[in-house]
């Protein structure tokens, strides 16, 4: 019995070691719980700092569309609400209700926090260090390729479904499911 315990301990340590440092974070979820970023280590992850009352807020539509279209093949989209630019609602329940009612958001949303400066969440500090590019406005995007092998910083003005964004993650997705046979 001790052998099984030892093997499970070793397996658990190996699993933790497999998590790239860039994704070795657990962040609070917008509506409770937490998001363990390690679970996405082998998938492309599109991270976006969001705000409910920004001129770029309609990008939620494209983000949700990408998530629905490519999520089954492995793309993960995660929103990180922030009031760093003074355009986010106060309460998590308000943010969640706004995103759902106006844009039908179903992709994971982290709890509201800072995305730049000394108060930035540790995960965003790591993204900034990896790209040498901090968000200068809402809807700045970071595309993390599988294994955190590369991080691409994407400006606010670039739409999430722009060809350069889609072309960057497409090679890392699972092949499309075969159509059902009649």
Automatic annotation (TrEMBL):
Family to which this protein belongs: Belongs to the glutathione peroxidase family.
TM segment ranges: none
Pfam families with a match to the protein in the record: GSHPx
Protein name stated in the entry: Glutathione peroxidase
Secretion signal, residue range per the UniProt entry: 1-17
Annotated keywords: Oxidoreductase, Peroxidase, Signal
Species of provenance: Chromobacterium subtsugae
Superkingdom per UniProt: Bacteria
């Amino acid at each position: 019995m001790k052998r099984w315990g030892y093997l499970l301990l070793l397996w658990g340590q190996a699993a933790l070691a497999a998590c790239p440092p860039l994704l070795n974070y657990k962040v609070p979820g917008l509506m409770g719980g937490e998001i363990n970023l390690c679970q996405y280590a082998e998938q492309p992850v599109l991270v976006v700092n969001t705000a409910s009352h920004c001129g770029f807020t309609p990008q939620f539509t494209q983000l949700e569309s990408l998530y629905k279209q490519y999520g089954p093949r492995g793309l993960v989209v995660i929103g990180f609400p922030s009031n760093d630019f003074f355009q986010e609602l106060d309460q998590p329940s308000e943010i969640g209700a706004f995103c759902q009612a106006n844009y039908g958001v179903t992709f994971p949303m982290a709890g509201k926090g800072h995305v730049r400066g000394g108060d930035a969440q540790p995960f965003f500090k790591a993204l900034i260090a990896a790209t040498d590019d901090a968000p200068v406005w809402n809807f700045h995007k970071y595309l993390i390729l599988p294994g955190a092998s590369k991080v691409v910083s994407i400006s606010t003005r670039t739409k999430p479904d722009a060809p350069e964004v889609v072309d960057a993650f497409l090679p890392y997705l699972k092949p499309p499911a075969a159509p059902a046979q009649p």
